[in-house]
Every structure is written in C-alpha cells, then in structure tokens.
Design brief:
Layout (H helix, E strand, L loop, with lengths): L6 H37 L22
C-alpha cells in the first residue's frame, strides 16, 4: 500500500525543517558563547576596556600634500 506525498506534507516538512535549522543555530551559538566564556575564565583573560566611538587613535602620522 503506497502513500502519496501531498502538498500539505511538503508544506509541513518545510516549516519543520526551517524551525529545526533555526533552533540548531541558536543552540550552537549559545553553547559556543558558553564555551568561550569558560575558556576565558580558566585562562584569567579579561577583555580590554571599551573605547568610546568618538575617540580616534592619536598615533597616525600627518599627511602633507
């Protein structure tokens, strides 16, 4: 006894596939962020202080025309 794959099946399949891919991406990103946090904590590494956007490096050489 054969079954036919109806358009309703393909629609549900596509929705579930997209949902599964989305959940997978979110979970992988969360686990990756957690792993990075754990590794940084073990190494005693601290991120450098954030600089304001309006500050510019004062180490640029002057350009004369």
């Amino acid at each position: 006894m054969g079954t036919s794959l109806t358009p309703e099946f393909w629609e549900r399949f596509a929705v579930l596939l997209v949902a599964a891919v989305g959940v997978t991406i979110v979970l992988v990103a969360a686990v990756d962020a957690l792993a990075v946090r754990v590794l940084r904590r073990r190494a005693g590494w601290t991120p450098p202080p954030k600089r304001a956007r309006h500050q510019f490096d004062r180490h640029h050489t002057a350009v004369h025309s």
